[in-house]
Amino acid sequence: MSTQPQFTGYYHADIPLGVEDSEVTRVGPRTPCGELMRRYWQPIALSAEVDKRPLPVRVLGEDLVLFRRPDRALGLLHRHCLHRGTSLEYGRIEASGLRCCYHGWLYGLDGTLLETPLEPANSPIRKRARLGAYPVRECRGLVFAYMGPPDRQPEFPIYDTFTTSDTVFVNAGHHFETNWFHLVENNFDMAHTVYLHTIIPGNAQFYDSWGVLPQMEYVETPIGYRYTYSRRVEDCIWVGLEDIVFPNFTQAGAIFSMDGRRPRYFGRGSYSRWLVPLDDFNTRVFVLGHFNEHSDPYHEEYSRPDNLEVMEAGARLARTYEERQREPSDVEAAGSQGPIYLRTNEHLGTTDKGIALFRRRFKSLVRALAAGTEPVQPAEGAKGPIPTCAGDSVLRIPRAPGDEDEALVARVASEVMAIYADTGHLPESERRRQAEARLVELERSHQH
Prior knowledge:
By secondary structure, this protein is α+β, with helices and mostly antiparallel strands. 23% of the residues lie in helices and 24% in strands. It has eleven helices and 19 strands. It has helices at residues 22-25, 32-37, 125-128, 180-185, 192-199, 308-313, 321-326, 330-335, 353-370, 404-422, 428-445, and strands spanning 41-46, 55-59, 62-68, 74-78, 92-94, 97-99, 106-107, 113-115, 133-134, 136-139, 142-146, 168-176, 215-221, 224-233, 236-245, 249-252, 271-277, 283-291, 391-396. Strands 12, 13, 14, 15, 16, 17, 18 and 19 form an eight-stranded antiparallel β-sheet that branches. The chain has a four-stranded antiparallel β-sheet with strand order 2-3-4-9, with no helix packed on it. It has a four-stranded antiparallel β-sheet with strand order 5-6-7-8.
């Protein structure tokens, strides 16, 4: 038998000619995935970015312009004037709307053509022409738009973490040069924390306990998934919970304050995140950090907008190529897959169960909408803020002998998830009281 190395690159040279999964990667108007994305409210800008000048934005393959009137009302219009196509990003904001710089045509918040000053007074243009426009609203320093059919506009979703008292809210937006689906799948892949965030950098980007491969359990909900990622850390079992809400919203537990070595009962989510396609090849990640004593405690070092990128990616974004090679983050891992990765070239493993679940269900939503079935909206049927489960609990539970400990960790994780979910209908203070009591009792029950 030959002992020579078997180099086979020649036979694999055509692999890049794989097949794109366009059903979920293409988001422009009238595409199947684009139609689904347009059924939901999407963040499009930070409130702080909208000042006295129009702001050009690109969302779901559409070029738009966002502006704020002197009375603080927001407008979102298609970017190009109906007259000769001049970009309204160079227009002038007035009391009633946005005026084109070229010939002075004036548009209202809903795209109504209010004035055509150089035309005759009886010109029919104003009656027959109307610029495309979308409804917008603000929440916690973010500007959201609904870009779907007007008669399908859903109620704006308010999550319980947006209403928690004694919380410092901080927001940021980061641009990634890659398809949105690469990034959204990362939400289901907690296994990557072992190498990407812990082993490869040498010094853990968060804590060394993140280098323990977590056990993951996924539970389907009407609007997405919630799942646990649980680890044995010395004499403790650390159970993290994450919310996934279709199509592109997630909430995760603590980042800066968690190492899994100290008991913690009913910790809450520290940030919310939306992965918004600008087009097929670019994504903007909007992050809303919520810092309080039950999430990541408020701290000058943590709760700055320029630090949310570390929470999001594991490292700062503005680094040299050498630094990014030496200590890659989520940006490098997901972004280096290319503008759109050809999925037929993949070899999924056992840690990719969540990704496979997500893909199948997301595609089912895309296909159902194409067949005429509207997706379930997050706020549908909600009486008050939408309950979420993201957070962390750490229980001091002795290690079980031998191979039994893995089953123990999984069982505890399921019980913790049930406690978070069962109390979701309660007001926050009562929910905390009941959840903490049940978690303490769960801890005690496993100590004998």
